[in-house]
Amino acid sequence: MDALSILAAAALRLRWAWGRPDVWLRRPRMDVAGKHVVVTGGSQGLGRALALLCVQKGARVTVVARTAAKLKEACADIASAGEGFGDRVQHAVLDVSTASCEQVAEMLRQASRTFGRVDVFVANAGTGNGMLLFGVPLSEVQATLENQVSVNLVGGLRCVIAAAQLMASDGQGGRVSIVSSVAGLATCPGYSIYSATKFGHRGFLAGAYEEFRRHGVHLSVFYPGSIRTPGFASEQENMPLVTQKIEAQCSDISSRRVLRGRAASGHRGRGPRNYQ
Ligand SMILES: NC(=O)c1ccc[n+]([C@@H]2O[C@H](COP(=O)([O-])OP(=O)(O)OC[C@H]3O[C@@H](n4cnc5c(N)ncnc54)[C@H](OP(=O)(O)O)[C@@H]3O)[C@@H](O)[C@H]2O)c1
Questions:
Q1: Which parts of the chain are coiled coil (predicted)?
Q2: Which of 40, 58, 179, 268 could form a disulfide with 64 if both were Cys (CB 3.0 to 4.6 A apart)?
């Protein structure tokens, strides 16, 4: 390749990335082998799939959720997936919607006694029920609002701040990721409350990224499309019709994205990815 072609390619890349903070903020992939990864909401769905993937790649993984029975089942499942996997997965019970930052930090300190310092933290625990705001009793709207804000936004951010502080405090840094959603980038009727919580992750990252980066902690936000999980199934049952219709079109966009990554994920194209 001559110098002119290299310059042209660089100019094209710059033009594509201009004004897209996610592109500029993207970090090189991390090898999790030998690292301690903590995943909230790790007892089912996306979190459990991520926990298994990390164990397969050689990490020690702590899965966190509210229900001890589901956590034990997830650990047993992961343990049975490969030789020695059982030695590299453990669980911790914590409700992110009520735990203080200090309680999250204490849970992480406890987890590190067996699996070493926390190198990677994924704030994945989340909930989302579509709901219209007009024609629904105010008490129901308020209950949904408070539940989603306390789990997705306040709960997620408490975890992220506690994990990032802990990683920064010993000078070794680490990676912290928040699971948002495509509904954290674009929204529609029925998703206003869910989106308010998921857009919040992006705002938080924009403010906190540089501060923690100086201490070796890299924050990121993940914006997945539809994924077939237990949470997705219950969300579908209660979704307003208008949201279902719009969501079906969004899933189509999402599946094209999925198609591009199918070699890596094993996904075969249309429809949500499948993580039970
Ligand atoms: N599935 C999708 O289509 C989709 C699309 C975009 C984004 N997302 C996001 O991806 C994340 C995972 O979604 P999913 O579909 O895998 O969810 P899911 O199947 O409902 O699983 C949720 C997990 O979070 C745990 N959890 C729920 N509330 C919690 C709390 N207060 N404290 C601690 N743990 C809690 C659950 O266990 P317990 O109930 O035992 O606590 C479970 O392990 C969520 O943040 C979701 O918003 C999902």
A1: none
A2: 40
Among 100, 35, 113, 104, smallest CA distance to 64 is for: 104
Shortest-distance Cα residue to atom 15 of ligand 1: 231
Ligand 1 and 98: CB distance under 6 A: no
Give me the percent of the chain exceeding a pLDDT of 70: 80
pTM over 0.90: no
Residue showing tokens 């010993």: 170
Query: 259 by DSSP, 3-state: which?
Result: helix
Give pLDDT, residue 255. 30
**pLDDT (tens digit, 9 = 90+) per residue, 164-191?**
999 999 999 999 999 999 999 999 999 9
Binding site membership of 125 for ligand 1 (Cβ less than 6 Å): yes
User: Is the minimum distance from the CB of 148 to ligand 1 under 6 angstroms?
Assistant: no
